[in-house]
Specification:
By secondary structure, the chain is of the alpha+beta class. Helix content is 32%, strand content 15%. The chain is built from 10 helices and 10 strands. The chain has helices spanning 3-17, 52-60, 130-133, 160-164, 179-182, 199-203, 209-213, 224-238, 261-267, 287-321; strands at residues 38-43, 102-110, 113-121, 140-142, 148-150, 171-173, 191-193, 219-223, 241-243, 253-257. It is globular.
Length: 326
């Protein structure tokens, strides 16, 4: 399928959307999973910042990291800048397309003494993920297991997911993805990457690599209701503070901190790829965003379907030609 065929298919699909009887697309928040979503709990008093989880994450996802084509197309408008981490793949002190998990550390006072707290940071996997509900291309989605994943085969890299994420988690790599074939000067400028909570390992019934690799047992996984109950009990026993139970309407990543969250957030070095721990309102609880998601959902579903068709056709063509177009 070439670009013209893709656009024709997209137009046909969009026209079909208006026809009576078209199946309604449901928002992720309205879906009813067969089982309770899973959540993870970090006991920050146990994390020593050894980085074993980071190394395990890199090893588990090495085959999913982008291999961009260079030189990058010039973008229009010119203010859209390339984001390229391909020459900085070893960077491990922030989130990048090649580093989906990093250890964020801060030193605060506890009982009159300095205490360094280490915080493994990655996607929070929100209960009502704005990245999934507001993605115009339908490339991000929440899954019944509670994880939020980006389909890198159809992501156009517009970074809407990052702009609506309270922690700006997804990271873009330019020079890779469908935009190079469809609209290399005008589309999103790459593909967005973030933690997928080890979808390939999950399909085999395995724990996420970061959990398996942690020598301190700092992270556990289980049904969200049990994880929330465990977090509350841990906080009660230790006098700790919970993060993630209510932030952004609740997330499937919870932390129990041994020090007040406000103190920890104030001590963190924040910036691109380095999120904070501030209290966060529910993005999808805002009427404008919820209304936008309701209007966007069916369109995004159609676009995602067309993009998947194109990606599959492209993959078959590459296989038949014996070329790698990645």
């Amino acid at each position: 399928m070439n670009r013209r065929a893709f656009l024709t298919a997209l137009g046909t699909a969009a026209a079909g959307l208006a026809a009576p009887g078209t199946a309604a697309t449901v928002l992720a928040r309205d879906a009813k999973p067969e089982t309770e979503p899973l959540a993870t709990l970090y006991d920050l008093s146990k994390c020593v910042g050894c980085g074993a989880c980071v190394a395990a994450c890199r090893e588990a996802h090495a085959g999913a990291y982008p291999e961009p084509r260079k030189p990058f197309p010039e973008m229009s408008p010119a203010r859209v800048k390339a984001e390229d981490f391909s020459e900085a793949r070893d960077v491990d002190d922030r989130l990048t397309p090649y580093n989906w998990l990093f250890i964020q550390s801060a030193t605060v006072a506890k009982d009159g003494r300095p205490l360094t707290v280490h915080i493994p940071r990655r996607c929070m996997h929100c209960v009502h993920p704005p990245c999934a509900e507001l993605c115009p291309w339908g490339a991000a989605a929440k899954y019944p297991d509670g994880a939020v994943r980006i389909d890198t085969d159809i992501c156009l890299g517009g970074a809407k997911c990052r702009s609506v994420c309270p922690w700006q988690i997804p990271q873009r790599q330019t020079g890779v993805g469908l935009y190079l074939d469809l609209l290399p000067r005008y589309a999103g400028n790459g593909v967005m990457y973030k933690c997928d909570r080890c979808k390939d390992r999950a399909a085999k019934g395995l724990e996420p690599a970061c959990i398996e690799a942690c020598p301190q047992g700092a992270q556990t996984i289980g049904p969200r209701s049990r994880i929330v109950a465990a977090a509350r009990e841990l906080a009660r026993q230790t006098g700790g503070s919970i993060y993630g139970e209510t932030e952004n309407g609740g997330t499937n990543t919870l932390y129990v901190s041994p020090v007040p969250l406000a103190d920890l957030d104030a001590a963190l070095a924040k910036g691109p790829g380095r999120p904070g721990l501030a209290r966060t309102a529910d993005v999808m609880g805002e009427q404008a965003n919820l209304a936008g998601a309701v209007l966007l959902a069916p369109v995004a579903g159609v676009v995602a379907g067309a993009l998947k068709l194109y990606a599959r056709a492209k993959g078959r063509g590459a296989k038949e030609d014996g070329h790698d177009h990645a």
